[in-house]
Amino acid sequence: VENVSLIGSGGWTYFDFTKAKGRLRAFIVNDCSNFQIKNFVIDDSFTTFSSLTLGWGGVEKGKALIGRDGLIENLTALNAHYGYGALQAHSGESIVFKNIKAKGGVAVRLETGLGNMNKSGVGGLFDITVEDVVSINGHGALMFQPHTMNHGHVRARNVRSDGSEFALLIAPPFVSTKKFGEGSQKKPGGYASITVDGVKAVYRDGPIVTRYPHLKYYPEELHGMVKRVDNGDQPGYIGPSIAAVANMQPELDSIKITNVEAIGFKYHPDIIGPDDLFKGSIKHLTKIAP
């Protein structure tokens, strides 16, 4: 598919998913070049999958069938699931994400865990630009997690959060034994470079949905605000904001983060790393073992 525009009419077009259940997306882009998607609001009900997914159509003659030369602009997701959000990009080349907002979940999730793509080793994200992204009461505005894929360059600016866990989260890669089995020869992936300029995060007491692996991110002073709850299909914990930025690979010179403003965070620095994680037992936060 080539040369496609999907533009919301009358300024914005509204998807009403408020009574939907299960697995749902508004858009999927796989093998497509020279496209734009803009001016859409998705009013969700915490369904599985991000509102928009840049996927992967397989491999043909050694080349990944993915989205290329695309613009995704003015996309808002409301009531998004913590594990998903406004959009997730598993693959893409020369893509611009601009003015993306999510209430819940992640606004722009550059997490490339699609199993078949990781098994093939062909695909990923290259020449990606992210501008003006916002998270409200969610997981974060911009998230990176390369899994086992090797990606190109990503540039981002104006990353904002209000009452979310993070504004920016750079998670370390890992090789999933569930996907690849024990003794896999797969290697952790990464990005050629990540450059983020202009991050602003506002602390709120919550409640913000969080998950078990993130409990160690909380400073001890905030442990009394973390609770285990019955949260339906979403993770079963709530708590306050954690930090403006979490960079779990601070040793990499290829990651540059500048102009960070953290408002109201008392117990963490503006940018936290592995050395800032809670080192003690978190059993008192779980009450019942997950």
Task: Please explain how this structure is put together.
It is built from 3 helices and 22 strands. With 290 residues, it is mostly beta strands. The strands form 4 sheets. Strands 1, 2, 4, 8, 10, 12, 14, 16 and 21 form a 9-stranded parallel β-sheet that branches. The chain starts with a strand and ends with a helix. The mean pLDDT is 95.
Low-confidence stretches: none
Instruction: State the helix count.
Output: 3
The percentage helix is under 10%
Tell how many strands the DSSP assignment holds.
22
Give a short account of the largest sheet: 9 strands, parallel
Mean pLDDT: 95
**Gyration radius, to the nearest Å?**
18 Å
